[in-house]
Design goal:
The protein has 407 residues and is an alpha+beta fold. Helix content is 59%, strand content 13%. Strands 3, 4, 6, 8 and 9 form a five-stranded antiparallel β-sheet that branches.
Length: 407
Amino acid sequence: MEAGSHSEPRGRTARDRIARLPTWALGLVPLAVIAAALVALLTVGGDTLGERRGPPVEDLAVEQTVLRPNQIELTLRNAGPDPVEVAQVFVNDAYVDYTTGTQQVGRLDAQKLTLDYPWQEGSPLLVTLLTSSGATIEHEVDVAVATPEADGGFYGLMALLGIYVGVIPVALGMLFLPFLGRVRENWIRVFMAATVGLLGFLAVDAYLEGTEIAEESTGAFGGVELLFIGAALAYFALVALDRYLHRRRERAEGAGAGAFQLSLLVAIGIGLHNLGEGLAIGAAYALGELALGAFLVFGFALHNTTEGLAIVAPLANRTRPSLARRAALGLIAGAPAILGAFIGASAYNPEVTALLLGVGIGAIIQVIVQLVPAMRDRAGRALYPASVGGILGGVAVLYVTGLLLSV
């Protein structure tokens, strides 16, 4: 009986001690145990599993190609588990000399190879890399074009292109604001539905473009899943921004604050989409796949003019914001095309592009969620003949103007 009477108080004392520990300490203990177990697995666990049989797993991919006179510079990325060493390089079945800073490429590491090869403008190139284990990796360049030098004139051209296809078209589309202020309320709901159609088309277009770019990536840091990661980040970031603006609006005085908030969210969503569009334009120009003709620029301008209409639609029949605020909305929506062109032309990376396109998709989806209540009729319906017609009209406008583009 005495032994039992002594064991109970000890048990209660141990439980009391655990109960008195702070919450952070209770969470720290399992984290420390998990860390110790993982360290032991890394240091000791490998010895207990024996050596892996079979040849090394080599997954080396070309991440970027830069063409200079008599030179081809390749940036390689190792997406496999084992180190890879390039032993020989062939271009169009001819052995070429090359220089590199490192002999082996570790997992997820990058390596630059500079090939000495007198390539010809407009000719196709087939680069074959032979690894030390005898494996071959092939990389094709459909049309050899010199990579533009990133000097002042180059960045000036990219800035001008971003202004032409981003800032100016959005500003022109915003000129519809006086017209929208005169139409009846039921027509405003139709225009809001058209805005939903415009944004939905942009989201689908960005998804299709993003999946295509992601499939061309090395896969070292992910592929199509980067689209969904970017979309989730943007969606929840805009949800947080919307709640912050909502709290400010409740404290603000004067009519029109809520309408401006909605227009601001639309401008942000379109701006993030134009960032991805600028990336694609800049990269296509740097790779020689885009000729900056007047017709193409006209097509982009006409295509993006409808984005300005989408921004001012929530402001119809409301107190109009100041000219400075409207100019800010236009810059938020259009100026990211300039930044995107800079990044795409000078430091293009498929993984980053896929992530940023996903950011644009998530932003657009969140904006659509915000716009749906504004297109409801008096019966509370979001889908009725007029709204469905507006959505389809918005899709049709972007589809038809998109036929003028050939990127």
